């Protein structure tokens, strides 16, 4: 990459000036007028050398200019000691040519940062018998994007989903189903049956707090024991229905999982691991078994792994789950888990305990947390007055998109597909446009805007560029690099950065760098589109402008893919 060449130029100049090297920053200036790259090396070194940073910047600039390669058009000292690098016209046209040479395939923006690495990413994790809530949407969007970014960085990635198929939530749902046989109806669609189970769960959850605790606890015991025929029948039907509903949602979101881990399987495993390591890692306390993590790390605290009733806690189950993952994927280099922030504390304790039992896993576990989603101008209720689940958020957004696109003409199948992809883009981009740890304000209207900071805006920009290419084909104007426009466009000054952005996203596990970059590129292209006649047989530079448009579509489609968003050619 060009930034490595610039870093080498700087270090070679320092060697010739007999200045000891130090860490410095090389980045893109916010204002493109200040060059394509800028470094603070003079300011960093001036402090150590006790000299004026402006004068040192001039010295380093002059030394670089003595051996300036053709990849750099000029170098300037500016401000309080910055050194700015400008790239030549040829660099940008060649970068467009390189983008086109990839055909938009895996080489576009790819890197080998994770070459040879086997990575498992666990995300989404909805529980059967409960609604698919907004948190599941958030972890799905983040997890799927991270999985795709790592794949594009040459990792072998497997996708995992952890499901709570047993537990009190199941007993609450089954109690509710037993109160009203209509909720057990099997004549409706899978989605309708699943919705009825959600209603039953709400009934059970409310009753558990009021007057049905004993009965629901009894049902819970029977579920574990598989001792009641009627409850077994309801359980098997409910599990199948809710899991099928989840699969329909995954299909809409563009996710296919490789592994499903069940709580009923990992809980006994976790319990056994804890009991086997009492006295080594865990210790007994008031009838329970605990891990006093603060002995190992003062930032951590004591957590219960097995209760005084002998039941494994979330911590023990997580221990069993992690062990099950490493058994399922032997030789795995990294296990990534995406969850909400409230699970951060106990996950750190689990990782600490497991690293004592299996030191070889210590640097192979990564926990990424996300914030909460809130709604602009509304509380946690949908326009129908119901609590918003992940599924209703998708459906509500689809309704708004359908209303917005009602005057556009598509055949019915294409229309439904486009509406669905635009709704998913609206939600996913809203989640992915900021760093994963922050809370999100979801604005229904802004999220579906075709103008501004939104997923549909990115899709619309891509579709608009494709319409230009269709016109170019009809005019028989093919991409060519023979005659270049006199001016370098902002689009060119952004497109070549794509591999850098992907690399940064991969190294930091942060999709928002790609999301923000795509918005910047889309705005630049739309400005170019609005101020330039791209397809014009009389213009000798038209073929290059068409090539530039092709490059934009390649980068936009690949970038959207890395965010888990589809790129429709028409909207």
Automatic annotation (TrEMBL):
List GO terms (cellular component aspect).
Answer: cytoplasm
> Which EC number(s) does UniProt give?
6.1.1.19
SMART domains given for it?
A: Arg_tRNA_synt_N, DALR_1
Boundaries of each DALR anticodon binding domain copy?
458-571
Pfam families in the cross-refs: Arg_tRNA_synt_N, DALR_1, tRNA-synt_1d
- InterPro entries in UniProt: Arg-tRNA-ligase, Arg-tRNA-synth_N, Arg-tRNA-synth_N_sf, ArgRS_core, DALR_anticod-bd, Rossmann-like_a/b/a_fold, tRNAsynth_Ia_anticodon-bd
Question: Arginyl tRNA synthetase N-terminal domain: from which residue to which, for each copy?
Answer: 4-87
In the record, biological process GO terms are: arginyl-tRNA aminoacylation
Q: Which GO molecular function annotation, any one, does this entry have?
A: ATP binding
The protein depicted here goes by the name Arginine--tRNA ligase
Which organism is this entry from?
Candidatus Nomurabacteria bacterium RIFCSPHIGHO2_02_FULL_42_19
